[in-house]
Structure formats: C-alpha cells, structure tokens
Amino acid sequence: MDLVTCHCRNTCCAQCGKMCNASALQPHGSDRGDVRLRCTACGDVVSARTGTAYAGIRTDLTQYALGAKLLAEGLGVRATARILEIDKDTVNQWLRSLGTHGVEIMAYHFRHLHLTECQLDELWTFVKKKVSFRRPCLTSNQHEQSGHGWHWAFSLSA
What we know:
- The structure is a single chain.
- The chain is an alpha+beta fold.
- The chain is 30% helix and 23% strand.
- The protein contains four helices and five strands; from the N terminus they run E-E-E-H-H-H-E-H-E.
- The strands form two sheets. The protein has a three-stranded antiparallel β-sheet with strand order 1-2-3, with no helix packed on it.
- The model has no long low-confidence stretch (mean pLDDT 76).
C-alpha cells in the first residue's frame, strides 16, 4: 500500500489534507494487517486504506482486486463468487463499495473543467421495426413515428 497519499482527515487539524513529507503522520501499529497512522498534530488515527477502494474490505487484497477486475470486465456477481469461492453477498458488498468509490472519484476529478471543444457523435437505430412487432391498426404516419430515431452522444475535451 502506498503511504504517500495518506493524510490527516480531521478538518479541525492544521495538518488536514497535507500529504507526503508535509503531513504529520507517524506509524501507529496495524489493524488486521492494515497500516495505521497517527497525526502528531491532533492525535487522530488514520488507516492507510481510508479513502481508497480498499476501505472497509476484510478480504485478502489480491482476491478483492481480482474480484474487482472480474466485475469490471462484465462477469456476473454469482460467477465472480463461484470463481473466487466466496459468498455472493460479499461480492454484492464489494460492488456497492466500488460503485460508491467510483462516484466519489468522478465527482472529484470532473469538477470545474474549462472545456474549449465538444465532439458530437450520432447513431441511427431501429427499435421494434420488425414486421412482427408492427400492429396493423397503425396508420402510415404512426409507422413513421415509431421504431427508429437518432441518438446523439457528446464528449467534451479540454
């Protein structure tokens, strides 16, 4: 675990948010194998996993990382649980934790972007246009309005 990004999280502390050599964190033992650090300024104890995707996870880190990769590749919850030989409820807990952490990461990194360029892409698709889906009571005008359309997607770049 990389301790460079660890910092005091006590908002009342003068050292809050300072990382690396600027932080006042000193080693303070371990909890279930996780490194713990104590802030010399305020006395708060911080786990090295706090604020990461590994926070609150009791499973072996390599098994958890493999489970996260399997889920990210689209493998189902039950299949991931079978491969890792763990309970599906544990995998569901991981999924919730990873999702919450992902939202926090996106919210942090994608704020206050000053974009100068926007790219639009288009996709034209059929939806329920097969003859078997059509109802014979529709008028020709209603046939034209149902079943297909343009979908626009955009991406912004700085």
